[in-house]
Amino acid sequence: MFVKHKLSTLFLLSVLCAFTSCSNDETYAEQKEREREAVNSFINRNIVILDNEGEVLINVGHINVISEEQFYSQDSTTNVDRNEYVLFGNTGVYMQIVRQGVGEKLKSGQSKQVIARYVEYNIMRDSIQSRNDIFYYHTAPDIIDITNNYGTFTASFNITDGGGAMYRLYNSREVPAGWLVPFSYIRLGRQQTENGQIAKVRLIVPHTQGTSDARNYVYPCFYEILYQEVRQ
After folding, report:
1. How far apart are CA 231 and CA 9, in angstroms?
2. Which residue in 214, 182, 174 sits closest to 199, CA to CA?
3. Looking at residue 135, what is its pLDDT?
4. What are the tens digits of pLDDT across the range 146-157?
5. Structure letter (DSSP) for residue 81
6. Distance between CA 221 and CA 205 in Å, rounded?
């Protein structure tokens, strides 16, 4: 499994080199336009993400974008049967709540530790960029220390035990801003019953809300993330 992790790191380096080459030839405005075109194409295509063995990992499908007004009128939910994603105009993040989760929402003034298991798909490259839902990271998950500062969420990756895939790959404790968007709408807990499943979301995150590398090289990512409260 160490080899898979090493390959992921090498893949990221190749991605960054490719974007460095592009950035030398394009203005920032041109890079943003290319990003917008890639996101629009992703939304309108019937996307199926495959794993390294060619098996279906995530069936993204053709995305139906809804407004924030419709999202709130639906009690802050997205209809998964209609493959709805809400677009937040102030950030450019698209979000689908697959499951709202168990437990309670993070309350104002409250802090928690949350395990995030994810798949990161580079939309510009049409490739999986990183993931921690594999056996290698079962004992080293990505743990987020998050606080609800009365409606504004702040967070960092916990690296007490060496950190998870995101910290090891990007060498940063910074949690992408796009990852924090769901916390206003999901519940945090642990699965206690067969039907009591933890929160699961899908996100399209533009470079401005992504990792430092995404911001530097202007590329968007698709994420599927499960959020689970750390056992107390």
Report:
1. 30
2. 182
3. 84
4. 999 989 999 999
5. T
6. 5
Does residue 10 carry a pLDDT above 50? Answer: no
Identity at 205, one-letter amino acid code: V
Domain housing 104: 2-229
Domain of residue 14, CATH code: 3.10.50.40
Q: Which two tokens stand for residue 108?
A: 């104002």
> Is 89 strand, coil or helix?
coil
Q: Where are the alpha helices (DSSP H) in 26-164?
A: 28-44, 68-73
Q: Looking at 15-19, 98-102, 220-224, which range is the least confident one? A: 15-19
Q: How many folded domains does the chain comprise?
A: 1
Distance separating alpha carbons of residues 115 and 158, to the nearest angstrom? 10
Taking the C-alpha atoms of residue 5 and residue 168, their distance in angstroms, rounded to an integer, is 10
In 3D space, the residue among 229, 218, 154 whose CA is nearest the CA of residue 189 turns out to be 229
Residue 199: pLDDT above 80? yes
CB 116 within 8 A of CB 141: yes
Least confident among 16-30, 92-106, 124-138: 16-30
166-195 burial code (b ≥16 CB/10 A, e <16) = bbbbbeeeebbbbbbbbbebbbbbeeeeee
Element (H, E) at 229: strand 221-229
Largest CA distance in the chain: 54
On the question of pLDDT at 20 being above 70, the answer is: no
Residue whose pair of structure tokens reads 């530097």 in the numeric block: 216
